[in-house]
Amino acid sequence: MVWLLALLSCFGLICAETPFNVLDDRVIGGSDAKPNTWKWQVSLQFDSYNEGYFSHICGGTIVDSFFVMTAAHCILSMDPSQYRAVVGEYNLSEIEDSEQFIFVEKIIVHPKWVGDLGKGNDIALLKLATPIYDNGFVEIANLPYPGQMLPHDFTCYITGWGSMDHYGSTPEILQVAPINVVEHAICSTPEWWGSIALETMVCAGGDGVISGCHGDSGGPLNCQTDGAWRVHGVVSYGPAGMCNQAYKPTVFTRVSSFMDWMYSVMGANL
């Protein structure tokens, strides 16, 4: 679920020179993550026909025992009963006794999200019906400081169950890959993403090798800053077609730009 932009009506899909598409998939250029490492990673799952069959559509991040952070473009319906958050997940095809399957009680999309990835605000919070409990396989993510920026070429890690190639191959095991930040002054130039790369976004990748892809949307950009792993971004968009295009890095919603909104929402929905 990661991409959109050229055809913003294509739900997360951007065509060649514009951002990616959003519906099913993985990290390109990555490898199997070690079990029980990225404990704040969430598999957001959707029941399209209200038949009790849920499938992975997006990633997410545990930000509180009752809240999951994801991308606004991952919200295909405002009916909470169609979603569940799976935490402690590793292999989507197996029950490993580490998972917690939790239904969603309320969906809160950023009020300035207009369905256009190029205008930003691609962030949403899901309030869970029951709290996540500490079973040794889950953890609440550390977040950045409000307004915190990452320096150019800083190495972070993208994680998710998104497509591993432009053919749509989708591994069952959580994938991880190092990905370097591209500062806004570069990412916003015409050779890169141009004016659709906003200061409220983080660009990372663009080397033509490693990128997020369909199915990674909503998942975390994990960066070790200030002595801890912190989630600095939410996967938002990338190029349509081949996700790992040179000069078209994966674009993330910059979490540090939305801290006040997040704390306000969580405080008001306890």
Automatic annotation (TrEMBL):
Alphabetical list of Pfam families matching this protein: Trypsin
Q: Which residues form the signal peptide?
A: 1-16
Name the InterPro entries on file. Peptidase_S1_Elastase_sf, Peptidase_S1_PA, Peptidase_S1_PA_chymotrypsin, Peptidase_S1A, Trypsin_dom, TRYPSIN_HIS, TRYPSIN_SER
User: What are the record keywords, sorted?
Assistant: Disulfide bond, Hydrolase, Protease, Serine protease, Signal
Would the keyword Protease be found if you checked this record's keyword annotation?
Answer: yes
Question: Which one GO biological process term can you cite for this protein?
Answer: proteolysis
Query: Gene Ontology terms, cellular component aspect?
Result: extracellular space
Highest taxon of the source? Answer: Eukaryota
Keyword Transport attributed: no
Give all residue intervals belonging to the Peptidase S1 domain. 27-267
Q: Name one GO molecular function term.
A: serine-type endopeptidase activity
Alphabetized PANTHER family for the sequence: CHYMOTRYPSIN-LIKE ELASTASE FAMILY MEMBER, CHYMOTRYPSIN-LIKE ELASTASE FAMILY MEMBER 3B
Protein name as annotated: Chymotrypsin-like elastase family member 2A
- The protein's organism comes out as Kryptolebias marmoratus
